[in-house]
Amino acid sequence: MNASPAGSGGSPALPAWVPAGPPTRFDPSATTRRLRRDRRRAERFERWGDIYVGVLGVGILLAYVLGLVQFLAQGLRDSGAAGLVRPGVAVVPATDAGSALLAIALLGVAGLLTGLGPVAVDRAQGLWWFSLPVDRGPMLSRQLRIRLVWVFAGGVVAWLPLGLSAGTAGPFGYSGPPMAELVAGCATLGLEFVVFGLVAAAAQTARIRHGFARALMVAGVLLALAYAIDAVSRAAGAARSPFSGLWPVLPSVWPAAGTWLAPAALVPVVVAGWLLVRPRLDRIRTSDLLDAGGISGQAGNSIALLDVRSLARSFSRGPRRTSHVRDAWARLLPARFGASPVAALLRAEALVLLRTGNVWARLLVSLALLAGTVTAHGGGSAVVLCVATALAGILAAQAAGAAASEAARVPGLDALLPLDSRTARRAHGLLPVVVLAPWGALAGTIMGWGLAGPGAPGDWTLLVAIGALCGIGLAGGSLRMAYRPELDWETVLQRQVLGKAGGPLIGHAVHGMELMLIALVPLGVALLLAPVPAVLLAVAAGVGVAGWFAGTYRPQPL
User: Which helix (H) or strand (E) is 307 found in, with range?
Assistant: First the structure.
């Protein structure tokens, strides 16, 4: 057996052993698992305790999510009598809007699974196991099978709050849907997740994983455009829109049907997909497995640490634009714009933001969320509008703070600037204002179109101005999230002994989000008041400026 030479570019390649005969049937993964299981027999009771704590935590989280979903569902039911959206805007039926939203969510799950592999190995496994003359098929099939089981469980748990939201709360308690319909919906969504996982694995075996991820993104954009065309045509008074017949036939409506025909039809598809994908797993390139393994490892660590920023970076492939596009951005912002240190810092962060494609995608998604909520029948209630505004604002603020987050990862860069620490921190907060103030104005425009309309230009103008001022406060929240302090693991471990480790972890996860929610309060109040009072503009200005200074404040070191 001989090892291949080092790879090009100065980095050594993984050893690719070429055995004289066929690969052996030795399975290092199974052997390692068996040895680990034999050594941990004495710890089985502790492992059962860990499982119990994990299941209890998932149950508590599911109870909170169920309460929120039921609260939103009740708001949707009551929106007919207390809707804030003017007549003729909320024209898309609730079933069609739900089908479109769940279809886009399914495409997002498929993209998530494609980013994670779904077949992946870490670098240690790639170096030690794949350098042996063994058949990698059994190892990869076992890993894919385990991941598909978890994917199915994720689909089942994801449908529970949605399925239970169909129930009603009466004077004698909560009356949920029939158990058979709920179980059928959970099984349907779980099997749909598995089908998407198998399709992602098939794309991986065909060595088109990145192309398949881009195709999923394009499909999501096309669905969003179809929904927009449907809403505009219905608002224009068309008897039938071009895509009105698309939403009832999408697979996203199958779980809501509550019938066992859908899972019965999906089971043969899953079995056939497994039989087709299983023999082709050994065709996956080792580099692709390691790339997916790196993403999976970072994503798992980010979830364990409740680090949203790191979780978003784990799926980010960096700047995806070609070199001539990057040069074009640099020509649009030449070096002469950086005459002062603050201007140079602003130019550098603007280039980072322009070269990161997912930033603008998240900004557009946040605005699309507001537009979809306004145009959907039942989305005009105060509860739904406020929740949608909060989600859209947090998503936009996280996107606008991407450049500041990159700067926070390397704190030594600020020391190279001829600026004191407070001035440098406030300079980092300028670009989020430049991005989020227009975003807030666009959000206010969408809300003004849906609530006030052309017949009330004064209210519309006030909503646009209040939205822009709320964007200033969101900029402070984005900077507060970017420069949040490191987690004190000594305190976490000490509290873990007492069972109180969740407090510091959750506080670290939501650091900055509380400021974002406070910044959006004036816009939420403006949505609730039919004629928007002019004094609310002054309140929004005060909250926005105070939020920006609170987010950019940096205490002097002792």
Answer: none
Three-state secondary-structure class, residue 169: strand
Share of the chain above pLDDT 70, in %: 73
Can you give the length of the chain in residues? 558
Model pLDDT for residues 246-255, shown as the tens digit of each residue: 888 888 888 8
User: Are residues 178 and 288 located together in one domain of the fold?
Assistant: yes
- Identify whether 243 is part of a domain: yes
DSSP 474-485: HHHHHHHHHTPP
Q: Are residues 470 and 541 in the same domain?
A: yes
CA dist., res. 529 & res. 508, Å (int): 34
CA distances from 249 to 60, 120, 239, 458 (A): 35, 34, 20, 42
The answer to whether residue 366 is domain-embedded is no
Sequence-distant (≥ 6) Cβ neighbours of residue 46 within 8 angstroms: none
Classify residue 557 by its DSSP letter.
P
Task: Tell me, yes or no, whether 96 and 213 share the same domain.
Answer: yes
pTM for the full predicted model: 0.78
Domain that holds residue 172: 52-316
Q: Interior CA angle at 64 toward 112 and 165, to 5°?
A: 80
Burial 199-217 (b: 16+ CB within 10 A, else e): bbbebbbeeebeebbebbe
Q: What is the DSSP letter of 376?
A: B
Asked whether residue 294 falls in the same domain as residue 155, the answer is yes
Neighbour tally for 534: CB within 10 Å: 10
Tokens representing 202 are 């098939």
**Same domain for 160 and 267:** yes
End-to-end CA separation in angstroms for the chain: 62
- Asked whether residue 394 falls in the same domain as residue 515, the answer is yes
- Cα–Cα distance between 310 and 516 in angstroms, integer? 19
Same domain, 212 and 339: no
Summarised one tens digit per residue, pLDDT across range 85-119 is 777 777 788 788 888 888 888 888 888 888 888 88
Same domain? For 343 and 292 the reply is no
How many angstroms separate the CA atoms of 424 and 345, rounded?
9
Domain count of the fold of the chain:
2
